Please model this.
Amino acid sequence: MLREITQAIVEFLFPATCVGCGKWGNFICSQCSKSLPRISPPFCKKCGKPETSGTFCPVCWSYQGKIDGIRSVFHFDGVIRQAIHDLKYHHLKALSGPIADYLVQYLRENPMSGDALVPVPIHKNRIKQRGYNQSVLIAERLGKMLDLPVITTVLVRNRDSLPQARSTNVEQRKRNVLGAFSCNDDPIAYKDIILIDDVCTSGATLEACAVALKNSGFNSVWGLTVAREI
Model:
């Protein structure tokens, strides 16, 4: 409660300024928004990583995995990188609004199959440290704008693994999240899920979530992230 009051006071005393250029008025001004590094086709049909063939990248040719596909709006660079960093680590929770706006715009131009949103969970230790899960904030904003339910209880993070950005290669990232997620036994009416996360590094976290969901009977699982490491 105290954290929320403090956050409200900070946002009142210090109105929005652009995280890119410092201009007053919006957290991401119109000029900086135009410069955001969007991911455009051609890209891998499976993981969404830029791929000149427009079919499958070499990794997805050799390993299909459980997840039906991953899409990301931006390269994890520049202003959007700073925005995500400020949302996660500087308690600028209001940034979840403009970030969700970008996801809405993307989904309207590139529809994805899903009847519910599931934010990628973080471990309870990180919740204690940070006070919130940034992916939940984004998903809740997105759900309101798209009139889709947001389910935060179905997927559980069992252990606090090393942040994926600190893992040195794809295989280490896969091992890092192996068995890290499970589903609870509560009955869920929705069976086609869109996972929501801030950044896709290798896709290993989203794949681990998809494994847990599909092993629990969900039909389709797509991943949608704000940005992607390239």
